[in-house]
Amino acid sequence: MADPKPRKLSLTSRLLSSLKSKKSPNKNRNPSWASSSDVGSEIGPLSANSITSGISKMSFGDEEEVFIDIQTGERRDDTEMLHSLAHHGSFGSLKSENEQRFGEDSIPGERLFESLPEGVWGCVIGYLGMSDLAAFAFCCKTFRGRLGREVWPILNKPENRDEKLQFLVKLDSSLPSHLLCPLCAIYHRRTRIGDEKLKATHVLNPIFNCLYANEPTELPIRTRLVPGHRLPFTFVQLALRALNYGPQYGIPYSKLDRRLKDKESDWTHQIRYYHHKGHLLLRSTSKTFASPGLTLSGQRHLLYSREDYTPYFSVCAHWQNGLLMDLCKCALSHIPVPVDPITSQLKRGPQITLSRPAKAIVTLCGKCRPMRRCPSCPTEYLIEIRLDEDRSEPNPVARFKQTIVVTRWSDLGDGTIPMGSREWMAINGVGEFEGLDSVGKRGISGTFESQNGVAIPGQRMLNLNPKNKTDGEEGDDWY
């Protein structure tokens, strides 16, 4: 009788048989860490979980347990791997390892610089300015011995005052209780550490004792905000020092925020600050109620201060060169004029015009609606006509009135020294600014408003001075 055909194994059975450990042809070459019987008894029949993971836990001795990869047979110990990454022993062992690597007779850094030839030193020094040479000599004794002490007396001469200020700025992080005075180029001790407050211009508010604090100077150490209020450069220093080095170096920039009311007019101001990439940004929003149908003299009376005939709102030093005041007058002309009462119309003739409800939203034209950017400094303007409530109005019907709102955004610079911050110098009308491209792809207004996650409505950004006029006060277009 013929033997029956062998039964075909299923796929699962063939897979299990292929994964079983095979006996070594050389029985004497068993692993040193376990016998073949131990391995077979430890692994046993493979389950579905072991096929999936491919890792089996094995016991060696009484306590130690390690993981063995069944596919590769590699021993895996995660604990030993983590401990191997740690440094064992004292830091003296690191020193001994470095000595073995570089040799016990390795030259220290100072002696290595001392051994450089004179030509190399002269080449390095030739690329450095006066302030960098002073900082170079201030590093260590080796550099001071090479450069000598003459660099500091030379830096202290009056003609090298700007270079001296650039050198002193490098010491800012080591003097939390002092503040660099740009007038006399000396670090003065702060008299009100942590309690500095911004006050009106007519109030004496020294934050350190300086002999030249009240002396007239051509250096722009203050910038105009609104009539009667200026921002000293020292407060820009304090705000940015606190952000860069710590709260003991200055004050939070939120302490500079103000809500102001002009004493001579109905203008109100809200001034806020924001820090972005090492610079202090300013936003000043000024508004007042505007009557419809103002004449040209009435518009001037509304916009200009009679004290120095400058705008009531915050402006940069180039406001007379561009179209800023013309745009404000254009926006005022869009306020709708209400219809006269019927009795007044009948006095003029038999024809009458019925009154219509006033528009709550005033639409500006293509000239005064877009935002404007000053081409001579990092400043942007936005002019709006809004409907606000006048709570002082006794008649409830006429309580809501149109207001003109002028918002200014400016970059005040990095707060190092006035002449070292091109943004600060530019908004005060000193020096040259590269133009619109240097501000960046994103406007200052968009950067400022993005801090609260609120984006202003999309506006075109146009040039405030398209004809590039520089007449200033001599011109008559601004009047």
Automatic annotation (TrEMBL):
It comes from the Eukaryota. Pfam families: F-box. Residues 114-144 form the F-box domain. Residues 1-41, 459-479 are annotated as: Disordered. Residues 9-19 have a biased composition (Low complexity). Signal peptide: none annotated. This is F-box domain-containing protein. It comes from Hymenoscyphus albidus.
